[in-house]
Design goal:
This protein is an alpha/beta fold and 250 residues long. The chain has twelve helices and eight strands. It has a single domain (6-247), classed as Alpha-Beta Barrel (TIM Barrel). Strands 1-2-3-4-5-6-7-8 form an eight-stranded parallel barrel, surrounded by six helices.
Length: 250
């Protein structure tokens, strides 16, 4: 079956409000005739400014993370209620930087996934292995576990609002990219997990993005693979001239 391509830009900890709004204006103009699904995820401080620009366009407003609780005494956290109030439509959860730099485990990430879905947000759930895990032959096992634990308690109906993003940790911001064949193998593995948990029809429908040094030069090769349905783009999403060619491929 033909799945829609989904191209998302994760701006990470870059851009002031004015810079973010300017990039959003350029993207809305240049992607307005794009045939794929699009999302941008600016930093928390820029969500309102970017949201005002992309509102009514074909670009979704995403957040890069959220708290595991709705509200309360959680200094420094941002809640799902606050994100929705800003017009956020989707949230990236389990990004490798959250897992490995900030030590978020599968249980915490799953709690966030369930909370986001409860409040009607779409979710991009990130999975991926470390270089040491790949070299030890554990890449598929790691991604299977992260997928299963991340989706624990997610209903078949709610799965329709979940996208999986495979991002090998060793390829993020390093300039290294998994070969299209290696990436597709993990995507196929993750799709197999979805088939086990939710059935073949759900597995055929779920969108699985690739993330990890995606750029215009390799995007088409990656997304030509059977199981790769788009990209979660980091560094190349920070400028329209590098993001638009990825977003408008095909």
């Amino acid at each position: 079956m033909t799945r829609p391509y989904y191209i998302a830009g994760n701006w990470k900890m870059h851009k002031t409000r004015s810079e973010a709004a300017e990039l959003a204006r350029e993207l809305t103009a240049r992607l307005k005739d794009g045939k794929h699904k699009y999302l941008v995820a600016p930093g928390f401080t820029c969500l309102e400014a970017v949201g005002a620009v992309v509102k009514g366009s074909n670009i979704l407003l995403g957040a890069q993370n959220m708290a595991a609780e709705e509200q309360g005494a959680h200094t420094g956290e941002v809640s799902v209620l606050q994100l929705k109030d800003l017009g956020v439509q989707a949230v990236i959860l389990g990004h490798s930087e959250r897992r490995h730099t900030y030590k978020e485990d599968d249980e915490l990430i799953n709690k966030k996934v369930l909370l986001a879905l409860k409040h009607g947000l779409e979710v991009i759930l990130c999975v991926g292995e470390l270089l040491s895990e790949r070299e030890a032959g554990q890449a598929e096992a790691v991604c299977r576990t992260q997928t299963k634990k991340g989706l624990e308690g997610v209903s078949a109906a709610d799965l329709a609002r979940v996208t999986i993003a495979y991002e090998p940790v060793w390829a993020i911001g390093t300039g290294k990219t998994a070969t299209p064949e290696d990436a597709d193998a993990i995507h196929a593995c993750v799709r197999g997990v979805i088939a086990e948990l939710y059935g073949k029809d759900a597995a055929a429908k779920i969108v699985i993005q690739y993330g990890g040094s995606v750029k215009a030069e390799n995007a088409a090769q990656l997304m030509a693979k059977e199981n790769i349905d788009g990209a979660l783009v980091g560094g190349a999403s920070l400028k329209a001239d590098s993001f638009v060619p990825i977003a408008m491929f095909g």
